[in-house]
């Protein structure tokens, strides 16, 4: 297979599988840590209106979803890639970072969470995904 095509497919596979992991954790999060009483977290508008009711524990699962989705997506991309494995893992991190930045700006969560999420959950996890995939 052409290495360029293989690298493109690696990024696509990493994005899809990382997104599945992310959404799976998000969908399970309500049963692990229930949302605050009286909060509607089923829509973006409801989530935005409910954000002031969230306690620190309510941010654990979104952080894990972002971090593990990026980690797994970067791992998959680096495993499949024909070349430039670290770069492609970081491309996955950049895509997820962009989504996280858009989400942070539209939801308006607490500054401490947005900073933690944007600093730790994307590029460091993409780097770790590459490192795990690169182990011999």
Description:
The chain is an all-alpha fold and 136 residues long. It has one domain. The chain is built from six helices and no strands. Helix 1 packs antiparallel against helix 3, helix 3 runs antiparallel to helix 4 and helix 3 crosses helix 6. The radius of gyration is 16 Å and the shape is elongated. It starts with a helix and ends with a helix. The mean pLDDT is 93.
What is shown here, in short?
By secondary structure, the protein is an all-alpha fold. Helix 3 runs antiparallel to helix 4 and helix 3 packs across helix 6.
Please supply descriptive tags for the structure shown above.
elongated; 136 residues; single chain; mainly alpha; 76% helix; 6 helices
Strand content: under 5%
Shape: elongated
**Helical proportion?**
over 70%
Uncertain regions: pLDDT < 50 for 5+ in a row? Answer: none
Listing every helix as H and every strand as E from the N terminus to the C terminus, the arrangement reads HHHHHH
Give the count of helical stretches.
6
Domain count: the total is: 1
Instruction: Report the radius of gyration as a whole number of Å.
Output: 16 Å
SSE layout:
Layout lengths: L2 H30 L11 H7 L9 H21 L4 H23 L3 H10 L2 H12 L2
Helix pairs in contact: 1-3, 1-4, 3-4, 3-6, 4-6
């Amino acid at each position: 297979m052409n290495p360029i095509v293989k690298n493109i497919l690696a990024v696509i596979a990493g994005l899809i599988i990382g997104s599945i992991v992310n959404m799976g954790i998000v969908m399970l999060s309500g049963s692990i840590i229930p949302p605050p009483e009286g909060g509607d977290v089923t829509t973006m508008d409801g989530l935005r209106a409910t954000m002031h009711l969230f306690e620190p524990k309510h941010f654990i699962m979104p952080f894990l979803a972002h971090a593990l989705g990026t980690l797994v997506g970067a791992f998959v991309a680096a495993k499949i890639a024909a070349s430039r494995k670290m770069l492609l893992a970081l491309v996955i991190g950049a895509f997820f970072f962009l989504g996280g930045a858009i989400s942070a700006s539209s939801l308006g969560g607490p500054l401490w969470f947005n900073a933690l999420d944007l600093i730790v959950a994307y590029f460091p996890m993409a780097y770790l995904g590459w490192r795990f995939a690169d182990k011999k």
